[in-house]
Amino acid sequence: MRVGLLWVALLGPDSSAPPRPQAPIVETVDIRWSAPEACPGRTQFVEAIEELVGHRLHLSADAEIVVDGRITPSEHDHVLRLEMRSRSGTLVRELHQARCGELVAAGSLVVVAQLSAIAAPSPATPLDPSDELEAPAEPAKVALPPPRDHPLLAPSTAPSTPRESEPPAPMPAQPRSS
User: Fold this and answer.
1) Which domains does the chain have, with CATH numbers?
2) What's the pLDDT score for residue 66?
3) Are 24 and 121 in contact (CB under 8 A)?
4) What is the pLDDT of residues 46-99, one digit of tens each?
5) Alpha-carbon distance 35 to 33, whole Å?
6) Centroid of chain to Cα 71
């Protein structure tokens, strides 16, 4: 189930849906990658990220944001250790999956979410808790139309106290074959 959700997230909505607005994203990043020979390489990881953001990234060793991904096999699965460093700090995530390709998909989602968070504008002015807030206005009173003739809206004719239901009748005995 998790893999299916990852693919839906990677592939996005169906093509008939209107395009969704893209979140701001950091354009320049240094992506470092290490994985066993049988696993997808750095190129596939970068392509998975670019697919999610909808355009190519500018890759530079001088970037202020560094993504370091390392896949290592463990006893029962593979582990992706993602470390993202920027001015705002370091984020470390460990993901576990049976197959390396699933780690590339999941890891690209983590990277895009973090890049979007880094690029998002900060709030203009934080609220000062000492500022006095105005009381909310009194809500407007609206007259509702009378109920229509609908079985669910009609007054109930059922008794107000619940009745105990009778237990179901026993099943007839089945003849045994010898």
Assistant:
1) 25-119 (3.30.160.100)
2) 94
3) yes
4) 999 999 988 888 899 989 899 999 999 998 899 999 999 988 889 999 999 999
5) 7
6) 22
The position carrying tokens 């999941």 is 106
pTM here is 0.56
For residue range 105-130, list pLDDT tens digits in order: 999 999 999 888 877 665 655 656 66
CB 109 within 8 A of CB 74: no
